[in-house]
Amino acid sequence: MSAIPHHSVVVVGGGQAGLSVSYWLKQRKIDHLVFEAKTAAHVWETRRWDNFCLVTPNWQCDLPGHPYDGPDPDGFMVKDEIVAYVRRFVEKVDPPIREGVSVTRVARRPEGGFSVATSAGDVTADEIVVASGGYHTPIIPRMAEKLPKAIAQIHSEQYRNAGQLPEGAVLVVGSGQSGAQIAEDLHLAGRKVHLAVGPAPRCARFYRGRDVVTWLADMGYYEMTVEKHPLREGVRDNTNHYVTGRDGGRDIDLRRFANEGMELYGVLEDYDDGVLRFRENLAESLDFADRTYNGINAAIDRHIAETGVEAPPPSVYEPVWTPPAERGTLDLAASGVASLVWCIGFAPDFRWLDVPVFNGAGRPVHKRGVTEAEGVSFIGLPWLNTWGSGRFGAVGRDAEHVVAVIADRLARRLPPLDLAG
């Protein structure tokens, strides 16, 4: 009977987070293996719509050994450019990766280390790095089961373009980054869109002569750690601000869309006998988004005043549309809605990790990715350490930190050299 293969480190997930870990492990010449259920960094190609683009400027893309290398640092890479950028990173890292292999269980071994069960056989490891992200299971509410079979339903990860949906109006549920951008994509394609708006914040694309991201970088926002954020770990539950990099970048203003014919509603609550019912909180959600928008701009105003930077004069957003009345219902047949796109996020699924590192909500407890269960680390989660932890901007720095901790632990486990031999 052949021995089970052993590796110092097993990395679960071959996206930019797992690849960044592999980069730093290779720099330290630490033996490791990366398992990826599909193909390296496949998400950008297989789970994004055709007109998808970055919402942060290209200059923020700073994977280890692979900063943005294109001609437009202040632009926003579109889907094909993102895929090409990540593929070049894969080629540079040249990771020891097993693609098409799923990890089905990780557990501690009585003699130390971990057993790793996969779809292609078992291995053992001293260290486990979970790099599979936190967006695993698309959230679709059970209410969806009650909708008429004639209504085509997809999740945001399945949306590609307006042409894939049947003729007729489209209901988009959720107004975070994906929901707002998919609603815009459909709207620009000439489709009649109904949008269920949630309590998502928004921000300006450009303000006082510069991209808002550039101002926030100057203000140190992207270096703020979870421990220093006013919300502490609560920031990890925040919905991302909606904005877009499309066509060179612009605001997403749902009020303007309403003026152009998009129908807006509050949070979707239920369905019964052909009619959808919404919470009557549309005005509240729009006002919250605008307060956030103006609040960020006001912080930039203070920074400009304090530093004496020359910039165009300040401004305050004034609503271009207000709901004439809250509409609490939508008759599907009467409105001609033929399809629905669920844009209400994903749920994490770490059931395969049989190690006590989770809190009561099923989320990993860690400090900058390092858990109290020695040998288990996480990487690539939103706000793992800073805002950029789940993005191209800071995942490489987080990976370097995690690998440094791993290297120290591995060194402490090595038997002492026999200098007398």
TrEMBL record:
Keyword Oxidoreductase: yes
Keyword terms, alphabetized: Oxidoreductase
Keyword Oxidoreductase: yes
Pfam families (alphabetical): Pyr_redox_3 (PF13738)
InterPro entries per UniProt: Auxin_biosynth/cation_transpt, CHP04046_FMN-dependent, FAD/NAD-bd_sf
MF annotations from Gene Ontology: flavin adenine dinucleotide binding; monooxygenase activity
Name of the molecule in the record: FAD-dependent oxidoreductase
Species of provenance: Methylopila turkensis
Superkingdom classification of source: Bacteria
